[in-house]
Design a protein that fits this description.
mainly beta; Udp-n-acetylmuramoylalanyl-d-glutamate--2,6- Diaminopimelate Ligase, Chain: A, domain 1; 2 domains; five-stranded mixed sheet; 2 helices
Amino acid sequence: MAAVAIQEIVELVGGRYTGPADRFISGVATLADAHDDQISFLSNLRYAPQLATTRAGAILVASDVQGDDARYIRVANPYLAWARVIERWFVPRPPLTGISPQASISPSARLGANVAVGAFTTIGDEVAVGDDTIIYSNVAIYPGSIIGSRCIIHSGTVIGADGYGFVVENGRHRKVPQIGIVRIGDDVEIGAGCTIDRASITARRWASIACSWRRSALPARPSSATTWSWPASPASPDISRSATARRSLPRARCSTTCRPTPR
C-alpha cells in the first residue's frame, strides 16, 4: 500500500498539525503497536498514558488534549477522524460488488440499484432490498422481508424466520402461524450469525442503526408492530421502541441497558 503524505491526512480530517510536513504514513495501528510510519489515535482517555511511549508517526487526538507533541493531529472527534482515514486509504479488502451467480434470488424479489449479493445467499419471494445494500454470503432472507438502503448484512444472518410462537392444547404445544414480516430501516449493519425473527402478526421494524448488532438472536417478539433502534455507541445506551413493547431486553442477550421510549 502506497504511503500517504501527512498533509493529505490533515486535510481530510480538518485537523491542526504543526509537525514535519514531509512525513508519510503507510499504515494504521494502536498506540501500543504503532511504528514510526503508522498513524494511531486517542479517543478514550484510559489509554492516554500510552501517548508517552507510543512510536506512532502521527496521532489523532482531541483538540483539548494537553501537550505539544509534534505528532499530534488535533481534531474535534478522533474516532471519527480515524474512521475516515481508514476508509480513505487503509481498507484491506474491496467491498463486495455485483450479484453472485451462486446466489438464489426469487424472481418476485425486488432489488434496488447497486445491490451486492454474495454466494449461497437466498432471497425469498416478495423480498424488497433498497439501493446500495450489501448482503454477504450464506445469508437467508425469508419471503416478504423488507431491507432498507445502504444496509450491510454479514454472513450467516437469517432474517424473517419464524419465532417461538406456540399455544398449549390438551397438554401439547400447537404452533401459532407467524404471519408478520421483518422491516429493516436504512443504514443498518447486521453482524455475522444474527437472527431476526418475523413478527407474529404485523411487522418487526428495525430502525436505522449506527452500529452492528452482533448477538445471536433478538428477544422474543411482541405480537404487534415494534420499532427498534440501537445506540451509536455503548456510551449512549438508549433503545427507542414503540409503546407496544415496554420491557427491557434479557441481560443474556444484550450487554447494554435498554429502556423504552414512545415514538
